[in-house]
Automatic annotation (TrEMBL), chains A, B:
Residues 11-106 form the CoA-binding domain. This is acetate--CoA ligase (ADP-forming). The keyword rRNA processing does not apply. Its EC number is 6.2.1.13. Keywords: ATP-binding, Ligase, Nucleotide-binding.
Length: 481, 481
């Protein structure tokens, strides 16, 4: 256990990285790795290795690992699989601690020869005390150390860890999550897991002081003996969210050709997760929603929501979708009703939960003041656990002249959220408008909410589902402890 | 029945519209109605009515309805509720055929006095043979005639009708749906339904030659006696999609303060829909997804999908989410496997369903040619009912230099879709990136797919769910007939 923690410390904090297969061609991954390490400000040494180039991206390039004068902690390999046995040999001489294999076309092909080659490589690495990440993976994103495999990921670090057997899912979770305010401690795309596997990484993340929330995308468990215990241990220490790939017949077939994993039985998996007390996500989008909820809204102590929407149909939808997804939208308590009546004799009893903000429009005539006061009362009241506010983008941003009103609504939500002690979620539709002004306006207000510390969800159903999962987790956790 | 069809023909095709409460203030709805009618090119007469203005938006304004020289078919009212009895009187003298009441603060307030006023108005209108739409609604969008209540709606007409008790939902369905290629025959926001109600409109739409697909958002049924029969009749004639507001306790409370409706029992509602053979949507987003599916992918005859994704994890997710949502992702049939092996001896047996397009990347080395051929074979094969292709935006649009590759993938999907007789759906994540180039690139490619006749879905789960609902509908329809 101490040994593995040390090995992984080296991997996440190398003093030098060699990219074997580094390239001068910007379309090659061997170019991208070098470029992105520089862009992210990795402070250790970067050594491109390529038999044919003397310089790559302004860095001296070496024909082979052995030609590098200084020591090499960590190697990224983008060379074809056939070159790996020789690479391991060279790395051994150079006392490299770990190799990450972007290199693929190994066991995942299902071909006997490739499966044998992967085993051979894993064996050689083990014999030489070299740890392997992969093959068939993107490797490590550790923003604090300036290590990344995508130019799009946030440069700033955070406290969410994501361990993923799929590279594609890391792009989706880190990029999409980043836009929604998630910041990551460590992200690992670990592919076929021929050496370091889910048990090693989850154990490390459970003890990693940078990591407060663990998320995992897994296709098949390599170390079935230790996995249940390690998962339980992690979930006891930190909120742990898992998305399982290959839960259906077709998914399970896809898993075997993706990372050469055995998907296993869904029923056993579900039981394991229940016992360990982890949160299961159904889709990548739901995983991001849950991570956003855990990052921004903790602690959530119950499911009673005060809802403010900006329209009649929207209010009905918010109420239905909250309740359909496991939250409750209680009527306003009698003391709030009495207080509203006292202050607003004519309008007080027209205000309900959900609060329909559109009734301030001409003709309806309920004063905004009364609605805001109702929101404040809900925000303070012990019979509510959280607030959800909908900005009703479609209606409010109908015309470019109304951008100010949209900003005003968002500012109002933020103010109420800041003055209250309640967790508050904001629903704002995606900024996917073909009109530039509307796209820009939504992106700007999203960013404003996130900066103010409030999470954004693209639909009320997605907000309610994720919040409900986290409440369930918190409540059952409270029971266990 | 013939009478009601005639009344509604007048409403959808008026020769003249008076906006009572027209305003010179761009923030008022009384300004917007006039402005939008002009913007949409309504060819009949537009008469602003306002006791204090002589001209609004360049049009002569009249102190009252009676001062207009020509005849007035249709009146839009934005005046306060208290002015309505007098308005009905004036409209009666002027032989107005219909009034749409944007005017709210009537029965939906729950106040006795307002409920009585709404009844009084409905009674006066009926006595004077004036039909009412609303109160508390946005009215009519009939693009073919240049009638609209939102500047954002498509100017071009189509064949989808949407009847909605919520104005907010019309903004969402028409705007969001419009961006995804839906075009509408007629959209009606009908609010409290004090006169014309769901039965009148659904019956009209069932017989309307412009309308091929009917969609309905309903909070409470006013005419419970005729509703089941009319719904059944409509669903027998055209695909009919319904979203019910107020299916939960909280939703049902919200419904009563939104449109003064009684939400009714969920169980009875579900049975009614099942018997009538309508498609039920759970959320507004799902309603849009289903309408997109019905518009672009008919006829869908089965649930066997050939899937092409652009990544390993993405392929697993596509397989899982298709099967979790009621579609099936069968293994490649033996004749396709044999054909692939024959043409591509080394790679043929590595290709599966889902097809993982990322394996063309360096190192993996399966030729794009082989994958494309596999897609073509699936597209032609009788054991597949449709294709779903995922553009894997996050991965492919990682860097601005890769826009060309993204375009290439979309072009390839479109080509395969065009050459094949199979329905084909494209999954493309929302264009909600904060980077302008990425937003623009996605918006452009979305538009390209739609122009080529292929529907866009933001996630595979949403695509699979909507497609599955439509397949279920088609199969049970085939059984019934």
């Amino acid at each position: 256990m101490i040994k593995i923690m040390q090995d992984l410390e080296y991997i996440f904090n190398p003093r030098s990285i060699a990219v074997v297969g580094a390239s001068r061609n910007p379309e090659k991954q061997g170019y991208r790795y070098v470029e992105i390490l520089r862009e992210f400000g990795f402070e250790g040494k970067i050594y491109p290795v390529n038999p044919k180039a003397s310089e790559i991206l302004g860095l001296k390039s070496y024909p082979k690992i052995g030609d590098i004068a200084g020591s090499v902690d960590y190697v990224i390999s983008t060379i074809p699989a056939s070159g790996l046995p020789k690479l391991i040999e060279e790395c051994s001489t150079k006392r490299v601690k770990a190799i990450q294999l972007y290199t693929g076309r190994l066991a995942e092909t299902g071909e006997e020869e490739s499966i044998r080659l992967e085993e051979e490589i894993a064996h050689a690495a083990q014999k030489n005390k070299i740890r392997l990440i992969g093959p068939n993976c993107m490797g490590i994103y550790h923003p604090k150390e300036g290590i990344s495999f995508s130019a799009n990921f946030p440069k700033e670090g955070g406290f969410v860890a994501f361990l993923s057997q799929s590279a594609g899912h890391t792009f989706e979770v880190v990029y999409r999550g980043g836009v929604r305010g998630l910041r990551f401690s460590k992200v690992i795309s670990y592919g076929n897991a021929s050496d370091l596997n889910e048990v090693d990484f989850i154990r490390y993340l459970a003890h990693d002081p940078e990591t407060k929330i663990i998320s995992v995308y897994i296709e098949g468990v390599r170390d079935t003996k230790h996995f249940p215990h390690v998962l339980q241990e992690a979930a006891r220490m930190k909120p742990t969210v898992i998305l399982k790939g290959g839960r259906t017949d077709a998914g399970s077939r896809a898993v075997s050709s993706h990372t050469a994993s055995l998907a296993g039985s869904r029923a056993i998996w579900d039981a394991l997760c229940r016992q360990a007390g982890v949160i299961q996500a159904d889709t990548v989008e739901e995983m991001v929603d849950i991570l956003v909820t855990l990052s921004f809204l903790s602690p959530l102590k119950g499911r009673r929501v005060g809802v403010a929407g900006a329209g009649g149909g929207g209010s009905v939808a918010m109420a239905d979708e909250c309740e359909n997804n496991g939250l409750t939208v209680p009527p306003l308590p009698s003391d709030i009703v009495a207080e509203l009546k006292r202050l607003f004799p004519h309008e007080g009893n027209l205000i309900k939960n959900p609060i329909d903000l559109s009734v301030t429009a001409e003709g309806a005539g309920i004063m905004l003041e009364a609605l805001l006061y109702a929101m404040e009362l809900i925000a303070k009241h012990p019979e509510f656990d959280l607030l959800i506010c909908d900005t009703a983008v479609e209606r409010v941003l109908e015309s470019i002249e109304w951008q100010g009103m949209f900003q005003g609504i968002v500012a109002m939500f933020i103010q109420i959220g800041k003055e209250s002690k309640k967790p508050m979620a904001v629903v704002m539709r995606s900024a996917d408008s073909p009109e530039e002004w509307r796209w820009k306006s939504i992106v700007t207000e999203q960013e404003r909410c996130i900066q103010a510390g409030f999470p954004i969800y693209p639909t009320i159903a997605r907000a309610a589902k994720a919040i409900s999962e986290v409440v369930k987790y918190n409540l059952s956790n409270a029971t266990r402890q």
